[in-house]
Amino acid sequence: RVAELAPHGRQMAPYACQRRTPLLHSNQPLTEALETLAEEAGFSGSEGRSLAFTRAASVLKALPGRLGALEELGSLPGIGEHSRRVIQDVLEDGVCAEVERVKLSERYRTMKLFTKIFGVGVRTASRWYQEGLRTLLDLQERNTKLTRQQQAGLRHYGDLNTPVERSEAESTSRAVQEAVKRFLPGASVTLAGGFRRGKPRGHDVDLLLTHPEEGREVGLLSRVVSWLDSQGLILYQHSQENSYGLREGPEPLGGRDVMDRFERCFSIFRLEAQGGPGAPRGWKAVRVDLVVAPVSQFPFALLGWTGSRHFERELRRFASRERKMVLNSHALYDTRQNLFLPATSEEEIFQHLGLEYVPPAQRNA
Ligand code: CTP
Ligand code: MN
Ligand code: MN
Ligand code: MN
Question: How far apart are CA 62 and CA 302, in angstroms?
Answer without folding.
Answer: 23
